[in-house]
From TrEMBL:
Enzyme Commission numbers on file: 2.1.-.-
The keyword DNA damage belongs to this UniProt entry's keyword annotation: no
Organism field: Streptomyces kurssanovii
Domain named Methyltransferase type: residues: 41-137
InterPro entries for the chain: Methyltransf_12, SAM-dependent_MTases_sf
Signal peptide start and end residues: none
Protein's recorded name: Class I SAM-dependent methyltransferase
């Protein structure tokens, strides 16, 4: 199984592929979509859940989503048709870091996808190229809530504490106008869903040749979460505006 297939199976029951509950997503989108907004872009959209919720809430809005996973994009198309928003949604099978568009966007979203750009600040640099004057960026990324072990650092990368994370964003020319730090309940719910959905698929498809690998990945991920990074990793979502627009 490749990473994209595993991710799709793991996010079946938690389509917002970040540790956020429905109320948090709704509030973040409300702060991100300014009055009169016309276009929204999601870089690394996965199954398109952020876009689908934005389009369902804002009948005038048009959305573009970019992702390298054909499987995830197919799921986004199917859900968009079910919700009746497919005519306002355009999906691009493309590397998010190299995506180019003729449009400027009132909101650029990228949550939990910083790895595709090489980190938080490169993600913001990519978002900046797509942003209309006065537009906003909704970004979500991890941080160290407590001092991590060396094993956690090797596993999750070069993160910093919350204050330093926000300071780096500000020093890069952005001003936060809203933010949300995921609660312990949101963090745990996300990890239980990720591991549980993948394990459930494996147990329901025991005759599938990929079943043993899926179960092994779910088991290893659950162990890493509980033993290595559960007590140190956090997730912050920020709605940002350019300080000098």
């Amino acid at each position: 199984m490749d990473r994209q297939q595993i991710s799709c199976l793991a996010h079946v029951d938690h389509p917002v592929a970040s540790p956020l509950d429905d109320d948090s997503v709704r509030l973040l989108l409300r702060h991100g979509i300014r009055p009169g907004a016309e276009r929204v872009l999601d870089l690394g959209c996965g199954g398109g859940e952020w876009l689908l919720r934005a389009l369902a809430a804002q009948p005038r809005l048009k959305g573009d989503g970019v992702d390298v996973s054909e499987r995830a994009l197919a799921r986004a198309r199917e859900t968009a048709i079910e919700l009746g928003v497919h005519e306002r949604l355009t999906l691009h099978h493309h590397d998010a870091a190299g995506f180019d568009s003729p449009h400027a966007f009132d909101l650029v979203i990228s949550t939990g996808a910083a790895h595709a750009f090489g980190g938080l600040l490169p993600t913001l640099a990519a978002a900046r190229t797509h942003l209309a004057p006065g537009g906003r960026v909704l970004i979500g990324d991890g941080f160290w809530e407590r001092a991590p072990s060396q094993e956690a650092v090797e596993m999750l990368g070069d993160l910093t504490d919350l204050a330093t994370t926000v300071e780096r964003v500000v020093d890069d020319g952005w001003t936060p106008v809203h933010g949300h730090v995921s609660t312990r309940q949101e963090l745990d719910a996300y990890e239980w869903s990720w591991t549980g959905s993948l394990a459930t698929w494996a147990l329901d498809h025991r005759d599938d040749p990929d079943s043993p690998q899926a179960l092994a990945v779910a088991t290893a991920h659950r162990s890493d979460w509980l033993r290595v990074y559960r007590d140190s990793w956090g997730f912050v979502s920020l709605v940002l505006r350019r300080t000098a627009d």
